[in-house]
Amino acid sequence: MQSQGSLETGSVWTDGIPGVDVPGYDRDGITTGIVHFGVGGFHRAHLAMYVDALLEAGEARDWGICGVGVLDGDRRMQQVLDAQNGLYALVRKEPDGTLSPRVIGSIVDYLFAPDDPERVIEKIADPSTRIVSLTITEGGYVIDQVTGEFDPSDPGIQADLAEGAVPRTVFGLVVEALARRRERGTGPLTIMSCDNMQGNGDTARRVFTGFAALRDKELGEWVAESVTFPNSMVDRITPATADSDREALAERFGVHDGWPVVCEPFTQWVLEDHFAAGRPEFDRVGVQLVDDVVPYEMMKLRLLNATHQALGYLGYLAGHRYVHEVAQDPEFAPFLRAYMDVEATPTLRPVPGIDLDEYKSTLMERFANPAVADTLLRINYGSSDRISLFLLPVVRHQLEHGGPVERSAAVVAGWARYAEATDEQGEPIQQQDRLADELTPLAQQQSTDPLAFLRYTPVFGNLADDERFAAAFTESLRILHADGARAAVAAVS
């Protein structure tokens, strides 16, 4: 990271840049307490920001973050952070277009696992590391989408379990480090998922303990008994960084950052206070520490994340390309709010301290923020994982209790139409989904077989056999094909 001579990339910050908030703490001597897998935009706008705030307050100097990349695509993050001494700019975008940059200094190291897996393992095995945190996406947990259980048939898992294998997956690397901690008497640590899944800690527990048990039964028992997996609810809209973001940072503030992060002003983190080897004082910087995170998780996943799915596919088909365009569209906004009020909210438990009507109104305001410029392609990425985790639990709850499903069925039909890989003008839609090779051919059969897509049981289970849902789905799909997304939305608003 460079500036017009006023921002140093060393460990001591001596001069600020006008309009840019920079660390006032000395980065020399900060030691790693957290090893984080999946250093992307969200991690750098969320956990890394909270740790930076503690460092700014003179706390948490033994809780610096070591980032780890395991995928080929993580090479670029390694190169950028290495060149910038781990520093980057976090740019908050206000609705009026105001930019508020903060240079974040909490990432003190970054390791690219394919280059040196042994170094990653030893970093986790080191007694100073007490938390392994994760933002590996919903699809990164090798779970069966219908049962929610660990799927050991994954090729990466099988490769890591082979005798004499050098670990390559996050699960192989972490479990090998846990085995060394157990052998050396170093003790357990906490594995803290920050991914958008209900019961993200419970999911992490199933996968890591399942992997450990396959490797060694006693190791699996030790992990299950000693390692903690707190559930959490994380929330901050963090769109993909665009070239225009880099240019605005350079032109307006004189900061040249290879990979800045942009985000909305809102941030929330609700976290179960269940740690095996201590934690930073997260509550000092706005984190809500609770005994039970489930009500907050359900609220966020079924209102924010599922509503993202509701606007993503149908909005794209209607010609929009950004979230705020859909949220500001007078034909779409009532549909989105009706989904939240009529179908999602009745599936929620009471949420302590939260006014749900106010929360939903705030969501609509956040979606409509034009400064964030969040793309529909981003929120439509990994559809099969996101629909499974965010929307289908609402559908199944409502079917079980006799509640309405017409709006949810329209969303699923919107995805099914989007998965045909052409929009309403016949232009191609790039499918960014791990199951695209299987789902797109099914979607393209829908003109003659309307339930072909819905019968894909690895995602939908037996939903195609439910007469009420299947009827609502096929009716929305019929309207989508005949009259388009706007008509399909109007029919259920």
TrEMBL record:
Residues 33-283 form the Mannitol dehydrogenase N-terminal domain. GO terms for biological process: mannitol metabolic process. GO terms for molecular function: mannitol-1-phosphate 5-dehydrogenase activity. Residues 292-478 form the Mannitol dehydrogenase C-terminal domain. Keywords: NAD, Oxidoreductase. SUPFAM superfamilies: 6-phosphogluconate dehydrogenase C-terminal domain-like (SSF48179), NAD(P)-binding Rossmann-fold domains (SSF51735). It catalyses: D-mannitol 1-phosphate + NAD(+) = beta-D-fructose 6-phosphate + NADH + H(+). Its EC number is 1.1.1.17. InterPro entries: 6-PGluconate_DH-like_C_sf, 6PGD_dom2, Mannitol_DH, Mannitol_DH/Oxidoreductase, Mannitol_DH_C, Mannitol_DH_CS, Mannitol_DH_N, NAD(P)-bd_dom_sf. Belongs to the mannitol dehydrogenase family. UxuB subfamily. This is Mannitol-1-phosphate 5-dehydrogenase. It comes from Pseudonocardia endophytica.
